[in-house]
Amino acid sequence: MVSASEYFGNVWKTLSTTWGGMKITGKYFLQKPIPVQYPDERLPIPDRYRGIHYLEQEKCINCLACARACPIDCIEMDAIRHGKELEWVTFTLDYQKCMFCELCVYPCPKDCIHMGTEYALVTYDRSELNYDLLSFKGMSRDARIRKKEAEEKKAAKDAAKATKAAKAAPAEEAPAEEEKGEEG
Ligand code: SF4
Ligand code: SF4
Predict the structure, then answer these.
(1) φ and ψ at 4, to 5 degrees?
(2) Ligand 1: distance of its center to the CA of 3 in Å?
(3) CB-based pocket (< 6 A), ligand 1
(4) pLDDT tens sequence across 34-64
């Protein structure tokens, strides 16, 4: 059997806690609503947010350090090397597996892979979650120019070497011919 004081104590507790909760509800109820019209509007993203990666491809040297650091092998890349220049084939990151841990970012020697502020990964097709991070395939325009310059420089060097060798050849042959004459 509940005593009268306990009964009224419970009633008071119920009313006071309800009043406390309703005070907070009332405060927000009277405020102007602030809906965000996503996706046209977005809430500000903190600087250190770990969103979808982006790659500064021009700086990347295909060293694989990011791929090796990834604990679940999300990153795959392939590029053909032409001397110092790279011809990019692929650089993908699979968001079906990625856990946004950022471990791939720290070992990059060129500081060229980053986690951005984009977070929308909505799709009807899971295969679309294997993102291509390349902004271009093949070689960049600058790399092509540098490659051409390097090839021209090498060709000029080879030609100069060949000319020098050709000039040196008769001088080396001459003593041999002189020796022949003396014998005769
Ligand atoms: S964020 Fe983590 S899981 Fe995702 S690719 Fe980088 S290392 Fe791998
Ligand atoms: S660690 Fe950096 S430089 Fe090396 S492959 Fe990855 S993104 Fe490129």
Answers:
(1) -60, -40
(2) 62
(3) 69-70, 72, 74-75, 93, 98-104
(4) 889 988 998 899 989 999 999 999 999 999 9
Alpha-carbon distance 152 to 19, whole Å?
84
Dist. CA 141 → ligand 2 center (Å) = 20
- Going by alpha carbons, the residue nearest to atom 8 of ligand 2 is 60
Ligand 2 pocket, 63 CB below 6 A? yes
Q: What are phi and psi of 95, to 5 degrees?
A: -80, 0
Q: How confident is the model at residue 25 (pLDDT cuts 50, 70, 90)?
A: very high
Q: Is 145 in the pocket of ligand 2 (CB under 6 A)?
A: no
Helix, coil or strand: residue 71: coil
pTM, to two decimals: 0.70
CA 97 – CA 121 distance, rounded (Å)? 13
Provide the sign of the torsion angle of the four alpha carbons 81, 84, 86, 92, taken in this order. positive
- What does the domain layout of the chain look like in residue ranges? 53-139, 140-176
> 67 is written with which tokens?
């791929």
Span from the CA of 150 to the centroid of ligand 2 (angstroms): 24
Domain 53-139 adopts which CATH fold?
Alpha-Beta Plaits (3.30.70)
CA distance 55 to 74: 15
Say if ligand 2 is within 6 A of residue 61 CB.
yes
